[in-house]
Amino acid sequence: VQLVESGGGLAQPGGSLRLSCAASGFTFSGKLMSWYRQAPGKGRELVATITTGGDSRYYTDSVKGRFTISRDNAKNTVYLQMNSLNPEDTAVYYCNVRWMSNDYWGQGTQVTVSS
Question: Hey, which bits of 25-66 come out as E strands?
Answer without folding.
Answer: 33-38, 44-50, 57-59
